[in-house]
Amino acid sequence: MITVPGVTGAQDTRRAERLSIGRNFLVLAHRWAGLLLAAFLFVTGLTGAVISWDHELDEWLNPQLYEARNAEGIPQPPLLLADRLEAADPRLLVTWVPLSVEPGHNLGLVVKPRLDPATGTAFDLDFNQIALDPVDGDVRGKRMWGEISLSRENLLPFLYKLHYSMHIPDGFGIELGILFMGTLAIIWALDCFIALWISFPSASAWTKSFVFRWRQGGARLNFDLHRSGGVWVWVFLLVLAVTAVSMNLNQQVMRPLVSLFSTLSPSPFTRTPNPPDQPIEPMVDRYTILQRAITEAEKRGWSTPPGGIFYDPEVGVYGVTFFEPGNDHGDAGLGNPSLFFDGKDGTSAGANVPGEGSAGDIFMQAQFPLHSGRIVGLPGRIFVSLMGLLVAMLSVTGVIIWQKKRWARKKMLMKGAGEV
Question: pTM above the 0.85 mark?
Answer without folding.
Answer: yes
